[in-house]
Design a protein that fits this description.
six-stranded parallel β-sheet, 35% helix, 8 helices, two-stranded antiparallel ribbon, alpha/beta, globular, 230 residues
Length: 230
């Protein structure tokens, strides 16, 4: 009204409550370790610091692959593996594994002592292990981020993947694959994605790495925000 001494206050829209951060268990690749993997994922973690908390785990045994050559442990830290291959070949190529049960038990214990975790993030051998856990132990993780993962060739370990290829698993998954990855070629990574009912697939131009470019970071963040709201 004209002459009124009282201004009309603008309406204040209530803000949506902040979503709690998602807890991710992170599994490194073969011949890596938790600290090395943490450093290699720095760009992705920085983008996701408002969305996630990360726990990096060390695999329980030394990596013994004959193909590894000389690894600079002073720079990279100890080369560890979630399992070794009985023929000394790359985990993606070997059909006989040794030591997997020890890693599965370590992850179960970690989930009990430091979890529960909302999801799991893995690279290469760690991605394959993460996928195996999603397929064989439902409820342990609500979703998975799988970078350069592959379907295992060991007949015993492969059984849950064969079953999922026929009847895809409902766990939400994000798959990142490299167009020039010589260790886990794109078609191999896509075979893993086909084990899940609604996989989100991101392809980059690089090789056997966790890329740090903006499109990848944004795609991962969108996937995780959808998990927060689901």
């Amino acid at each position: 009204l004209r002459g009124s001494r009282h201004a009309i206050e603008p309406a204040v829209m209530p803000q949506a409550p902040a979503q709690p951060k998602l807890k991710l268990l992170c599994l490194h690749g073969y011949a890596q370790n938790g600290q090395f993997f943490r450093e290699r994922t720095g760009a992705v973690r920085k983008q996701l610091k408002s969305v996630c908390e990360f726990t990096f785990l060390d695999a329980p045994r030394p990596a013994t692959g004959e193909f590894l050559g000389q690894i600079d442990e002073a720079t990279r830290g100890a080369p560890l593996g979630w399992y070794n291959t009985r023929d000394g070949n790359r985990p993606a190529l070997s059909s006989s594994y040794d030591g997997l049960d020890e890693s599965l038990e370590l992850i179960r214990q970690t989930c009990q002592s430091q979890g529960p975790f909302d999801g799991v993030l893995g690279f290469s051998q760690g991605a394959t292990l993460a996928a195996l856990l999603c397929l064989s132990e439902p409820g342990l993780f609500g979703f998975a981020l799988l970078f350069a993962g592959f379907v295992p060739r060991d007949a015993i370990v492969r059984a849950p993947f064969d079953a999922a290829a026929a009847a895809p698993n409902a766990t939400p998954t994000f798959h990142c694959l490299g167009a020039s990855d010589a260790s886990v070629p794109p078609d191999v990574a896509r075979s893993l994605a086909s084990c899940f009912a609604s996989p989100a697939v991101f392809e980059h131009a690089g090789g056997h790495v966790v890329p740090g470019n903006a499109p990848l970071r944004n795609a991962v963040k969108d996937f995780l925000r959808a998990r927060q709201l689901s």
